[in-house]
Amino acid sequence: MVVIMRNVIKVRTAVRAxxxxxxxxxxxxxxxxxxxxxxxxxxxxxxxxxxxVQKEVEFDEQDWFLRAKYRHKPTGLSMQKLIQYDxxxxxxxxxxxxxxxxxxxxxxxxxxxxDAMEREELREIDFDxxxxxxxxxxxxxxxxxxxxxxxxxxxxxxxxxxxxxRSIFELNPNHFQINxxxxxTDNRMSVNLFTHGVADIxxxxxxxxxxxxxxxxxGGHTFYDNxxxxxxxxxxxxVELEYNNEEDPAQFLGHFDFDRLAAxxxxxxxxxxxxxxxxxxNTDEFLALIPEPRGELTLQNVxxxxxxxxLRFDYVHDDGFEISQHIAYRDYENRLEVQMRxxxxxNFSIGYQFCVSENHSPREYVQMFKxxxxxxxxxxxxxNMDLAGLNPFAAYFPREIGNYVLSNFNSDxxxxxFVGFYNNRDTESQVVASVRYGMGAAQQYNRYHIxxxxxxxxxxxxxxxxxFGLTVRNSYMVFxxxxxxxxxxxxxxxxxxxxxxxxxxELTNVIEAFDVAQFRSWEAPERFATDVELMVDGYPICLAPxxxxxxxxxxxxxxxxxxxxxxxxxxYRIEDEAGPGHCRMYMEYSRNPNDDWEDKPLYFxxxxxxxxxxxxxxxxxxxxxxxxxDCEGPLLDELxx
Length: 641
Prior knowledge:
There is one protein chain. The protein is α+β, with helices and mostly antiparallel strands. It is 21% helix and 36% strand. β10 (175-181) and β11 form a beta hairpin. The longest helix has 16 residues, at 497-512. The protein is flat and about 85 Å long. The two termini are 37 Å apart.
């Protein structure tokens, strides 16, 4: 489940501090499939190795967190090995860096070594020897969602001769990387699999030099070897083997069933929004936006890919070789495994592939192309693409607002975010307006209510809607939460009070050009609708403070969870009625710098007409400082001690 959290609390420590915070949390508990998973998980670490001996082990099955303490035999120094499945919160309490293998985080806490030894000495110590890395991968295959996420793992051999499968990475939906290591020689092999359009583009990059490569037979297929990479195109799959040792790579590849790989049904790229058709990018109107390159190039072909908003323009150079220019819209930029990328332009990414002359650098050839006019691209998208179909918020962004013109936008179709950039025709001033929906909106709204901001917030009533105003990173912004939609606009801030007033006036004009009041009753299309009835322990979760306000009016059960940092997390819960005009609330620290305060509930009463965001801090503070007789619970008992 996904929870947006906010928290305003007061902690009694040596130095009192008022803190509040927000965070987007991800919890996933339905991950372990077999009864013996816990025992196998504990077996991922060694009891004793050549240089380390295990002293004690702690395993928290609720968080799937494993901590093992070791003594280093040569020096007597201590270290800890930390492993967590389905999250890394517990690991990051102890270490700032860790290895990440699919859903498993592995970290090493070795402060004693850093205090006692020089860095050069530390390089001689192999801290990884207390974790069986191949066993980590095998545990995931047997007990987790590994095969669901990486079905190719069921096709690839776990062992290839003397090599063990160490890890599998999905670099993007059409690129898998599998790393193998020989425990006998420490030699490494990396197999990369490219599929669909990415395979074609990648293979085209190799075609420039195939004639110069040595042909190698492996697994019944022909590979081309350039000295450190073997490559073969098998149907829709491109296989690349990277090796850096003297062993025979063909012998290693003999352990693979390439016929099975070639027939494997790989998943393809997800579309920006499920169920939507790709826009037609190969229209005459779009082609007119692409400037003619310099005279050395002649356009031969334009190819539009059926499975993505992706175009390829093939040109022939006067010297006889080809250059292809790729243009992909939004998320489809992941397809562009090309030799050189240009910077993104608006919502388009541009890249090039070519076999260039030895007398010129690739950059010289790219400079033959003129960049499309950004404003032309913007206008074409607004006029020709069904942006409102991809993202309904696109329909609410006017092309011009007074002296401001829409110069660019970013549209996230999967999360229903839309950000428009408006440039002033006469000045360098720019207004950024954005609309967010659902949990992402609540997250952004709560983020602005962190410590230090609330006291500086101003209130502006614009078009009948109350907006908060504040300065963040030298930019003045105003924002409002309307039902499940957040609207926000921002202008650069100056130190001159008169300029500040001018900025506010300009923001007001921009906001009034949007019908922001309509978002109070706006309903997302069915494919974007979020399930706000998330539950925890049988209680519905509120995603924003205003949700808690509504629950308080009837004392309806609800949970609101908040975290300031990795060491400070709190849960608020509306329990029941508590006499006329009040509700009973529960508060508990699940994490706190003072370990004695964790998991100890505090119960108190809150008025039904209270505003959760404004009143909760004062009520908790009164309880913890003994000014409210209606408070009780183990946390108060701890404070009394």
